[in-house]
Amino acid sequence: MTAAEPAGGLPAGLIEDTRLVDALSERYMAYAMSTIMSRSLPDVRDGLKPVHRRLLYAMQQLKLDPNSGFKKCARVVGDVIGKFHPHGDVSVYEALVRLAQIFAARYPLVEGQGNFGSVDGDGAAAMRYTESRLTETASVMLAGLEDNGVDFRPTYDNEDQEPVVLPGLFPNLLANGAAGIAVGMATNIPPHNAVELYRAARLLIDRPDATTAELVALLPGPDFPTGGQLVEDQATVVEAYETGRGSFRLRARWHVERLKGGAWQIIVTEIPYQLQKSRLIEQIAAEMEKRKLPLLADVRDESTTDIRLVLEPRSRSTDPEVLMETLFRQTALENRFSLNMNVLGADGVPAVMSLKQVLQAWLVHVHDVLVRRSEHRLEAVRKRLEILDGFLLVYLNLDEVIRIIREEDEPKPAMQKTFGLTELQAEYVLNMRLRSLRRLEEEALRKERATLGREEDGLVRLLGSDKRRWKRVSDDLAAFEKRFAALPGGERLTQITEAPKEIDTSAALEVDREPLTVLLSREGWIRAVKGHGLEAASHRFKEGDGPAFAVECQSTERLCLMGSGGRAFTLKAADLPRGRGFGQPVRTLADLPVEETVVSLFGLQEDGKWILGSRQGRGFQVTAANLGAEKRTGRQIFNLKPGDALLSCLPAAGTHVLCLGENKKALIFPSEQIPEMTRGAGVAFQKLGESTLREIRTLTLEEGLQWREGQRLRPARDLEPLLGRRGATGRMAPQWMLRK
């Protein structure tokens, strides 16, 4: 090897020609696999991601058992990132905090001392202030590491070993749930009740062909640490667990508290999982300001260690069920928790599993751990029996053993030859203390020999029978079922109820639904005026300004504003300024560029369709669902070519469309020839050449057309000469259509 070559054998400064697409593909794939395998997806066997597994193992190495003292979280995090997990301390500490939060984990694996956050969304204190140790549940998960229950692998720096998976008899994946986002895939698993999980697992041991419906009979749904009510019909729950994908409808738990004089108030004691109480209150207050909760007078937070939200009705005659129904529909007091059981299998391959597959994979892991621990114990028992047999032989020939030790230069081989001892037996005999040669010690050895002999026979029978092993697993699960049932909080926290019946809240909402007329001036000032049937011109505008659009709607409706640049903006009628004055510039509500104008303003009906047309004679139909845009920047609907602009946005109410070009040619064609699109440049309405469109109208041919106010109604026979197919040039328009 020359001096120019490094130890690896490659010349220094070597540059390889590689296609950029190949290099990017290779590196991105490596990154994606690292994210999936080592960060985001949990293992189906212990339900942990690598960072959580390393946290628990590091805490065990620090001897932070449930009965020991606490240690600073900074010490734990330091050990984890220094020995096992070379990442940032902030992310590792956040993972530790989550394992300790009683409102986040159904069965916390870490017991925290200090400020570990709250259900209000408050963050934990810095790790230099908080302390932690393992819980009893974590001890269950770690049990068996010392008995060769699982494989170990080298750490990132090859200086230590870490477990590939934890061996304990706790179904952590389903009991505590998991959430994560990887590259191209994600997982979201809710927590469940451990007692119910043990029962379902035992059913699978007794009856491997059990159906998902039979498992759901024992495991009726998630069990969240924050309680609440699961209001989902059983068929939906069974389908979600059968496919591994679905969602669960979750509601807050509440009751009516009676006051003096016939008054009452609603007390919310449990809120949906992962919902911050402070944000919930802010949302309710915001909806009250928007007049979307007409039955609610006030909301107060009287929580201490337990949640207590007070909801005061506007009238004591209000039905509490109706009031809560309006809150469930408008606020996060009811939400959905999605289920996506995408996990890493024992072979490291990610897959979406059903409830039965997850439980079966965990049971296979438990069985494998039992076999490995039994084999490890059998090996230890046989080694001890071999040693005991050597000791007992010594007691039968004590004088000869002493003679050999005193007279022989190499007593070990001489002893092996004389008594037929193995090397291990001879070594232990030579290391025996003289005080062990008492008669009582011999009796103790014989008793130990008999006990270990019986244990050896039991282990041999266990390892030789698949039926015995599964019976042992079932018995162990039954013992843990009783153990977790006796713990505080072992009972189900989330109430399972039937799907609620539909409650009519229309009468309640009518209290706050008022008619409005929205006025938009030519200079872009917008305001809402109470009432319908109003003359827009009678309302005050700035000097030189006047009405451009007047839309009659309800205060609960949404409006769509279309700009000439092809962008749709959504305005809420309840948010528009009212009262005296000129209103508010519409550009402060929608980011409409200064060079663009407002083409149309209309109410968004859910089942409505509109026809968009540009000056260059192109367009398409669009539905209300595609016009909605919650952001101020709006949604680009029409992709315009340079020099083009949106001309009109018309309700698709008629049977035909009329196009009139600046070249004075008109064309009428069926509206059904216009395709429905979500966005794009549309199709050609009329062939215009160098000209542009002047006007687009919709009409019903049989009803005729009134072109301008004051003109007579033109019957269908007057319009027939203009009929053609979409995209045609059209014919010269009649004079009554060209007059301005």
UniProtKB/TrEMBL annotation:
Q: Which residues form the active site?
A: 129
Q: What is this protein called?
A: DNA topoisomerase 4 subunit A
EC top class, as a word: isomerase
State a single Gene Ontology molecular function: DNA binding
Provide the Topo IIA-type catalytic domain boundaries: 41-508
InterPro entries (alphabetical): GyrA/parC_rep, Gyrase/topoIV_suA_C, Topo_IIA-like_dom_sf, Topo_IIA_A/C_ab, Topo_IIA_A_a_sf, Topo_IIA_dom_A, TopoIV_A_Gneg, Type_II_DNA_Topoisomerases
For this record, the Gene Ontology CC terms, alphabetical, are: chromosome; cytoplasm; DNA topoisomerase type II (double strand cut, ATP-hydrolyzing) complex; extrinsic component of plasma membrane
Source organism per entry reads Oecophyllibacter saccharovorans
Family statement: Belongs to the type II topoisomerase GyrA/ParC subunit family. ParC type 1 subfamily.
Instruction: Look up and give the membrane topology term.
Output: Peripheral membrane protein
Question: Could you say which residues are annotated as the site Transition state stabilizer?
Answer: 128
Q: Which reaction does it catalyse?
A: ATP-dependent breakage, passage and rejoining of double-stranded DNA
Highest taxon, organism lineage: Bacteria
State its role: Topoisomerase IV is essential for chromosome segregation. It relaxes supercoiled DNA. Performs the decatenation events required during the replication of a circular DNA molecule.
Could you tell me where this protein is found in the cell? Answer: Cell membrane
What CDD domains would the database entry show? TOP4c (cd00187)
- A Pfam family per the record: DNA_gyraseA_C
